[in-house]
Structures are given as structure tokens and as C-alpha cells.
Design goal:
Shape: globular
Radius of gyration: 20 Å
Number of strands: 11
Structural class: alpha+beta
Strand order of the largest sheet: 1-6-11-10-7-2
Largest sheet: 6 strands, mixed
Distance between the termini: 9 Å
Length: about 325
């Protein structure tokens, strides 16, 4: 499939943190203050500038949300259902949950079709996928199921595996990407890899102006990957990989793949020339040092051109 897939296995996360190879880039060391790779590239930013960029990005995101496709009961691809839960195969191009503007969403369609004990679509939501992501979503029909599933996800008793197409041929067959994440103050509200230098850039900013989330400390983040196949797209090298989010941070898989040097194909936010800071916020030299086999900028652009008519391949 050329679209992002989530295979939501309701299984224990056993041995998910015992990889064959761990990817811990030079910038990861910088998070503990012992590297100067990025120091010369980090500049202080003003709260007003951050707020202006945030507002502009938010308007763009709202416009995209408004394009969410409306689904009828007949459109729903039901994978499993009983009196407690409904598992639906979400298509790309549909919001998981409606925002304040009330755009069409999968949760709304499922509620209209099945209803729930809680009396609203919000009382069915256990987890969500990005609008461009396709894959399985579990909805609760009873309050007992909602509590039980929320507990299972919160305690990481659910394994969430995504299949993605990424730029370039990933050299190692399997491993773990280990990079802490933070909010991207240069391109809010997106995410980036956190370093000590980028954390310092936040000093002096006012939470009332830029928001508390932007000023949060780095979040440890782990992604397990396994290469499923090494392929070609339009004559260019790509890899099909299975990605398991161990820590479940916002946009974690997208940022980790970009910072690993193998961004997700057709990722308009974290891919080449995307809305977020390129390379997951890492310096080109830092990625090259840590992963010499990374997809070059030229290759990433060639793949982006070849996949211009595709939605994000995850």
C-alpha cells in the first residue's frame, strides 16, 4: 500500500526494547551538553516571532482539517465489532476526531453508525491517527471498554506498529532510534529532536506568550524499526519499514525517520522542504556523522518529485 498503515496489535510490549542495533546520533550527546556540533547554528528567537509563526501554522492546519472527507456507515470498513468495541480501518484523508470547527471525522461517523453508552463521539475515542495516516482504530462502545482500553494504552500494553515507506535504503535490518523530542520553536507547533543548545534557546521566553508546551523539557523517545523490504519508487531507492513507537510522543515516527536520514515518503511536514524544520531539527553534519548511509538531500528531493501525487506513505 502507498498509504500509511497502522497495525494495532492488542498485545503486550514484550521485548520491544531489545533491538539489534541502536541509532543514537551525535546530537543525542549534545542533549547532555558534551557536544558543540550545533552550537553555531542555534540563535535566540523572540516570543512574538514564535507566536506569529504558530498562528500562521494553525491557520494552515485548520484549512487542512476542513478538507477531511465525510464518511457514511457504508463507507466504514469494520474489521471487528462486539458489544464493547468497534475496530475500524481508517482511510487516509480523514480526521480521527473532529476539532472545534466540527470537521467530518471517523469518530463522528462511527458514533452516528453505532452510538455508544457515553452518548457522544468523544466517549468512544481511545486513540487516534493523523489525518494522512490509514490503519486500524479501536472505538469503545461502553464506558467499561473506554476505561479498560484507556488503561491498556496508558500502560503501554498495546503494541502499535506502523508500516511506512521511507527515502533511501536503510542499511541495518533492524534497530532502535533513540532521540529525545521537544517542540520546534522555529516552526511551531511541530516537533524536533531536542539538544542542549536548542533547550537553551528557550531561556527567557514567556509561557503566557508562547505556550507551556513549547517550554517543556525534552521527552525521551524510542522507535523500533525493522526493514520489511528495500524497493524502488520511480527508479529511486526506498525502504519499506515496520515502525513501533515505544514511547508514543507526538509526531515521533515522522521526526525520528527524518532525523535518522530516511524521512517518510511524501511527508509534507517533516520531509524535504516540509513545514517543520528539516532533518528533524538536526544539523546536516550531525546526521552524516551518525548515519553515513542516509538518504541524501538530492535523493529525498527526487523521491518527493516522484511521489508528488501521493499521500504520506505510512
Amino acid at each position: 500500500s502507498n498509504k500509511m498503515r497502522l497495525i494495532c496489535g492488542l498485545a503486550l510490549l514484550a521485548a520491544a526494547t531489545t533491538p539489534a542495533v541502536a541509532f543514537t546520533p551525535a546530537s543525542r550527546v549534545a542533549a547532555w551538553g558534551s557536544s558543540t556540533v550545533l552550537q553555531s547554528t542555534v540563535e535566540a528567537v523572540s516570543g512574538a516571532e514564535i507566536k506569529a509563526k504558530y498562528d500562521a501554522a494553525l491557520e494552515k492546519m485548520k484549512a487542512k482539517d476542513a478538507s477531511s472527507a465525510a464518511l457514511s456507515k457504508e463507507d466504514l470498513k469494520i474489521v471487528y465489532e462486539d458489544e464493547h468495541i468497534v475496530v475500524v480501518d481508517k482511510p487516509s484523508g480523514v480526521l480521527s476526531v473532529s476539532g472545534k470547527d466540527g470537521s467530518p471525522s471517523l469518530a463522528g461517523a462511527v458514533f452516528e453508525a453505532y452510538g455508544c453508552e457515553g452518548g457522544s463521539a468523544d466517549k468512544m475515542v481511545v486513540h487516534r491517527l493523523g489525518m494522512d495516516t490509514s490503519g486500524l482504530i479501536v472505538f469503545a462502545r461502553t464506558m467499561a471498554a473506554l476505561r479498560g482500553m484507556n488503561s491498556a494504552f496508558r500502560t503501554r500494553k498495546v503494541t502499535r506498529t506502523y508500516e511506512a515507506l521511507v527515502c533511501g535504503h536503510v542499511e541495518q535490518d533492524s534497530g532502535v532510534i533513540d532521540m529525545p523530542l521537544m517542540r520546534d520553536y522555529e516552526n511551531p507547533p511541530y516537533m524536533r529532536v531536542s539538544t542542549d543548545e536548542h533547550q537553551r534557546a528557550l531561556i527567557g521566553l514567556d509561557a503566557d506568550e508562547v505556550g507551556k508546551k513549547l517550554l517543556e523539557g525534552p521527552k525521551d523517545s524510542l522507535t523500533k524499526y525493522t526493514v520489511v523490504a528495500r524497493e524502488e519508487l520511480g527508479g529511486h531507492s526506498v525502504s519499506r519499514v515496520a515502525l513501533t513507537s515505544i514511547s508514543g510522543r507526538t509526531h515521533q515516527l515522522n521526526v525520528h525517520c527524518a532525523a535518522f536520514g530516511h524521512p517518510i515518503v511524501a511527508d509534507s511536514v517533516y520531509g524535504v522542504n516540509g513545514d517543520a524544520t528539516s532533518n528533524g531539527g538536526l544539523d546536516e553534519a550531525a546526521i552524516q556523522e551518525s548515519n553515513p548511509s542516509r538518504a541524501s538531500g538530492e535523493l529525498q528531493q527526487q523521491i518527493a518529485d516522484a511521489a508528488s501525487d501521493k499521500s504520506m506513505c505510512v
